[in-house]
């Protein structure tokens, strides 16, 4: 139960800081109402009047960014434990990098990294 004491203190501090920052932003922040700012947005574009069709290339680039961003996150735990994992960990990460390189080469060959 002693471990929960520290956790509850941490949670209380986080809640107080979050509430304080939110209240300060609401009280001190600039208030400039504008009908354009009140419009609904999705993916950075206003939704009510669609301005035309989006190119599929936009979504492909977005998906590639998310995929490679998530794959990059996999390097952090490995980097923390690299000495403990030894040669086996190095081999497994090398295989992972090889798979990533093959995926990169495929997308590059198909023109997925070109923005036109």
Automatic annotation (TrEMBL):
* Keyword check for Transport: yes
Keyword set, alphabetical order: Cell membrane, Membrane, NAD, Quinone, Translocase, Transmembrane, Transmembrane helix, Transport
Q: What is its EC number?
A: 7.1.1.-
Instruction: List the transmembrane segments.
Output: 6-26, 58-79, 85-108
- Output the superkingdom of the source species: Bacteria
Q: Where in the cell is it found?
A: Cell membrane; Membrane
The keyword Cell membrane appears for this protein: yes
Q: How does it sit in the membrane?
A: Multi-pass membrane protein
Record field: catalytic activity: a quinone + NADH + 5 H(+)(in) = a quinol + NAD(+) + 4 H(+)(out)
UniProt xrefs under InterPro entries: NADH_UbQ/plastoQ_OxRdtase_su3 (IPR000440), NDAH_ubi_oxred_su3_sf (IPR038430)
| Role noted for this protein | NDH-1 shuttles electrons from NADH, via FMN and iron-sulfur (Fe-S) centers, to quinones in the respiratory chain.
Q: Which family does it belong to?
A: Belongs to the complex I subunit 3 family.
Please report the name of this protein according to its UniProt entry. NADH-quinone oxidoreductase subunit
Q: Which organism is it from?
A: Carboxydichorda subterranea
């Amino acid at each position: 139960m002693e471990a929960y004491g520290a956790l509850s203190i941490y949670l209380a501090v986080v809640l107080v800081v979050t509430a304080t920052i939110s209240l300060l932003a609401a009280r001190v922040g600039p208030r400039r109402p504008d009908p354009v700012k009140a419009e609904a947005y999705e993916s950075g574009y206003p939704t009510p009047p669609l301005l035309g069709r989006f190119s599929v290339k936009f979504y492909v680039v977005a998906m590639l960014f998310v995929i490679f961003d998530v794959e990059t996150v996999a390097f952090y735990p490995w980097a923390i434990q690299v000495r403990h994992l030894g040669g086996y960990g190095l081999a497994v990460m090398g295989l992972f990098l090889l798979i990533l390189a093959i995926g990169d080469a495929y997308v590059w060959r198909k023109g997925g990294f070109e923005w036109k």
